[in-house]
Specification:
57% helix, globular, disordered N terminus
């Protein structure tokens, strides 16, 4: 098995698959979060693009956590972009031991899950923008996304082997 020096990805010669490690996924989550913070600092108003980037950081962080806990990548990908479902699954795998989410945090993530997974912020959705959309508080979303990314970065670094493979841990 070939591995990159930084353990960001692993190529399995047997299957010919390129597997992104939990650490590699967290690095991508960090980049999405940093970009969302840049946009958030440009205005006090909610930016759909900034919100999308913050949600993508949350999504990838939760997925990296599941990979670090030994969940197969195909099972993780099956969640799509559904943050609410990812919250439930990460709870099963013990995220509460590494990250404290208040009821308000969970409510915020669940309230934006449909808009995010429905790509309403990635593309201009006129119905969302003028009729049914509820924009979250950008500071609250940014702070929560930042806390999730920071907390799960260390989990993914310490819960993986030297080649970036997850340490198997039962739920």
């Amino acid at each position: 098995m070939e591995t990159s020096e930084a353990a960001t990805f692993r190529i399995e010669a047997v299957t010919g698959q390129l597997l992104i490690s939990p650490i590699g996924t967290m690095r991508r989550a960090r980049e999405f979060f940093d970009a969302s913070e840049f946009l958030r600092q440009q205005s006090d108003h909610f930016s759909p693009v900034g919100g999308f980037l913050a949600c993508r950081a949350v999504e990838l962080s939760l997925k990296a956590f599941l990979r670090a806990r030994g969940v197969e990548w195909s099972d993780v990908r099956a969640f799509g972009h559904d943050i609410a479902r990812l919250l439930v699954e990460t709870h099963i795998y013990g995220i509460d031991h590494f990250l404290i989410l208040s009821p308000e945090d969970r409510d915020l993530l669940c309230s934006i899950s449909n808009d995010y997974s429905g790509q309403r912020w990635a593309y201009f959705d006129i119905q969302w923008a003028f009729v049914s959309g509820v924009a979250p508080d950008p500071a609250a979303l940014g702070a929560l996304a930042g806390r999730i990314v920071a907390s799960l970065e260390s989990v993914c670094e310490t819960r993986t082997t030297g080649d970036g493979s997850p340490l198997v841990a039962a739920p």
